[in-house]
Amino acid sequence: MNALGLSLILKMGCLCTKDVITVNSKKYYVLEQLGEGGFSVVLLVENVRTKKRFAVKKIICHSIDDQKLAIDEVNYHKVLDHPNILQCLDSTVQGVADPVLNSTSEVLLLLPYYPKGTLARELEIRFKNKQYLEVNDILRIFLQVCEGLKALHEAKPVPLAHRDLKTANILLDVDYSPVIMDLGSVAPASMKICGSSEAQKLQDTASERCSMPYRAPELFNVESYCMIDQRVDIWSLGCVLYALCYFRSPFDIIYERGDSVALAVISGNVTFPEISPYPEELHDLIRYMLKVNPMERPYIYSVIEKGHDTLSKIKITA
After folding, report:
1. Co-location of 130 and 227 in the same domain
2. Looking at residue 102, what is its pLDDT?
3. Catalytic annotation, residues
4. How far is CA 180 from CA 59, 164, 234, in A?
5. Low pLDDT (below 70) residues in the chain
6. What would you report as the CA-atom Rg of the chain, rounded to the nearest whole angstrom?
7. Overall pTM surpassing 0.70 (yes/no)
């Protein structure tokens, strides 16, 4: 057999041995890896029969507690039926998580596939090309993200907080409509902290699951006796709006430099470029959300109202 024939056979062999994922008896070819986090991997897959593409989030669980958190994520998807929150189309649990037996389980979530990718990816491309978004587009995307957050914050039977809202957790549809994803950090919105051990536990969870440049000040240094509520997301939302304007969170540069993000966040010192394509009203909207004291921070309803007011003022002055 010549080299060409062997090469063709090897290529055919590769095609025939595609990884296959099964979700409730439906089979999907794995095409490529789309992303990876500390607790999961997201894969691009194709339905073996229909050839339609989806994303599969695979969460590896090393304990029953890990598995419970992953199943909670599936259940949050079921509760949150909103066009600006990612849908879960199907899910399954495979294997048994047992640290004694050194065995793991996998929770698989079948999700819609958004070819445009995340807002973070879009902003990175725009940053390289120095291509700013139009102010009307910024506020349209922002207000749709607000509507998705509102669905979380008024969820029944218990209001929920996302706790890791960031540009990398916002997908873009073909018409640039934003879709909030990754509900792995979602938790009941209101949490009463009683004692230093509870405070430390929440702080540790936040350091694992809430990205530094978007994390609210009260999650960096959790007080021993306090209330944490959904306004952690309002801080993150302010950082997202800043990123829509200037491509990244106001604390990303500090993070990249290796300086203390915690100190910068707790100081609340947010600066804007001296030369900006955006009106001061947009900066005021960002400042409105980035209040260090969570009790001074608005709820999502007030943010939506101020967002619409800002849009009206900008349209009048344009």
Report:
1. yes
2. 77
3. 164
4. 18, 10, 14
5. 1-17, 316-318
6. 22
7. yes
